[in-house]
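User: Okay, second chain of the day. Same drill as before: sequence in, structure tokens out.
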Amino acid sequence: MTYLYLAALAVVVIGHFIFAYGQWFRWPEICEKLTDFSESEAQKTKSMGRSFASYNASIGLGICLSFLLPEIQRDWTQGVVLTFVIVTAAVGASGAKGNTILVRRLAPAAVALAFLFLK
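Assistant: Same drill. Structure tokens below.
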């Protein structure tokens, strides 16, 4: 079960880094998938995309750094972070166009959290 948890957690971490990359370097495309903004509106909100990117990169990095903690603190910390990812993804998905956030943010975090509880 531990390997399943680590694999699920890796999907969460890698997903956050990929999303951060997209938000930083490909914001108009990401913006189009998530909002009804026009191309010019997406261009005007590039700095907002970079702000989102920094949050996503920070989450991925924070989960990676949590492996430096003793196991009981690591599991607790990762569980709290995964819970917050699920909650914030649900909030983000409620205002976004399509299912991108549900499929790429919420679902992997929910699976990882389930495997953490089963660990």
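Residues 66 and 74 are 6 Å apart (CA to CA).

User: Thanks, on to the next one.
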